[in-house]
Amino acid sequence: QVQLVESGGGLVQPGGSLRLSCAASGFTFSVYSMNWFRQAPGKERELVAYISSTGGTTNYADSVKGRFTIFRDNARNTVYLQMNSLTAEDTAVYYCNRAGGPLWGQGTQVTVSS
User: Fold this and answer.
1) Of the N and C termini of the chain, which has fewer Cβ atoms inside 10 Å?
2) Per-residue model confidence (pLDDT) at position 59
3) 39 — pLDDT class (breaks 50, 70, 90)
4) CA-CA distance, 53 to 72, in Å (whole number)?
5) By C-alpha distance, which of 96, 114, 113, 103 is closest to 37?
6) Dihedral sign, CA of 66, 68, 72, 73?
7) How many helices, marked H, and strands, marked E, lie in the chain?
8) What span, in angstroms and rounded, lies between the C-alpha atoms of 8 and 81?
9) Cα separation values, 32 from 28, 55, 78, 89, 101, Å
10) What burial class does residue 47 get, using C-beta atoms within 10 Å of its C-beta: 0-12 exposed, 13-18 middle, 19+ buried?
11) What is the pLDDT of residues 85-112, one digit of tens each?
């Protein structure tokens, strides 16, 4: 079964950190670029970070540059999003996506609040 399963979300205080994981199955993970998106309440889904199939190229939204890091482990079929210095504006449901197509995970909630 082709699927993406996110995990690692939760409640964190401002300034804190979280690491999200997205486990892929049912396809050859290592040949696909991957994205992390997020959607806050009342807002459109936005692209947060991109990583190429080998991990050699990454791109970030301006709002998260210097705070978030996307990386992957092709041996484990997993892509990660390390999030540091979190603020309330990072509160959203975070989704991983196989780049260029409609394959999405179910999402994981990240809430930044004191």
Assistant:
1) N
2) 98
3) very high
4) 9
5) 96
6) positive
7) 0, 10
8) 9
9) 7, 10, 12, 29, 10
10) middle
11) 999 999 999 999 999 889 999 999 999 9
By CB atoms closer than 10 A (0-12, 13-18, 19+), residue 94 is buried
CB neighbours of 4 closer than 8 A, spacing ≥ 6? 22, 23, 24, 96, 97, 98, 103, 104, 105
Radius of gyration of the chain from Cα atoms? 13
Separation of alpha carbons 37 and 44, rounded Å: 10
Which two structure tokens, joined as six digits, stand for 70? Answer: 């996307």
Are 96 and 34 contacting, i.e. CB atoms less than 8 angstroms apart? yes
10: tokens are: 């939760």
